[in-house]
Write a structure and sequence with these properties.
Largest sheet: 7 strands, mixed
CATH architecture: 3-Layer(aba) Sandwich
Strand order of the largest sheet: 2-1-5-4-3-8-9
CATH topology: Glutaredoxin
Helix content: 25-40%
Radius of gyration: 14 Å
Number of domains: 1
Number of helices: 5
C-alpha cells in the first residue's frame, strides 16, 4: 500500500485526460486538488463515487478544490464514462500504471478467493504547494464528498 503520508510532496505526473489533452499535477500549482484513484470506469462503486463528486462539485469548487480522477482505463473509456454521467471534472488515463505505482495504490487484491493486481480506491488531498494534506484510504463511495470536506 501507499508509503506516502501527509506532509510528503505529491509525486508529479503527466497523463492524458478524457479529451486526449495532456495534464500534469504541476498544472494545478496554487490550487487544492482532490486526486482520487478508482478501479474501473462504469462499475457500481466507481460510478457511485464519481456521481457523488459530480453532485457536490460546486461545494468542492467553493472550497477551492479541483477534482482529478485516475484509473488505468483508456482515454476512450474515460470519455464514455464522462459523457454517460455528465462528469464535470478531469479523468486521467494511467494505462502504463505509472501514477498508480508512484502513489502506491497498485496492489494485490482479492475477490472470491482469487488474487489479482488492481487499483486500491484511495483519495489524496493535495494542497496549493503540492504537498499531501490528507489520505483517505477507506473511501465511502456514496458519501465521499463528506469525507473530503
Amino acid at each position: 500500500m501507499s508509503t506516502l503520508k501527509p506532509g510528503d510532496k505529491a509525486p508529479d505526473f503527466t497523463a492524458e485526460n478524457q479529451d486526449g489533452k495532456t495534464v500534469k499535477l504541476s498544472d494545478f500549482k496554487g490550487k487544492k486538488v482532490v486526486l482520487y484513484f478508482y478501479p474501473k470506469d462504469d462499475t457500481s462503486g466507481c460510478t457511485a463515487e464519481a456521481c457523488n463528486l459530480r453532485d457536490n462539485y460546486s461545494d468542492l469548487k467553493a472550497k477551492g478544490y479541483e477534482v482529478v480522477g485516475v484509473s488505468i482505463d483508456s482515454v476512450k473509456s474515460h470519455d464514455k464514462f464522462v459523457k454517460k454521467y455528465d462528469l464535470p471534472f478531469t479523468l486521467l488515463a494511467d494505462t502504463d500504471k505509472k501514477i498508480v505505482e508512484d502513489y502506491g495504490v497498485w496492489a494485490e487484491k482479492s475477490m472470491y478467493g482469487r488474487k489479482y493486481m488492481g487499483t486500491v480506491r484511495t483519495t489524496f488531498l493535495i494542497d496549493e504547494k503540492g504537498k499531501i494534506e490528507k489520505i483517505i484510504d477507506k473511501v465511502d463511495t456514496k458519501n465521499h464528498t463528506e469525507q473530503i470536506i
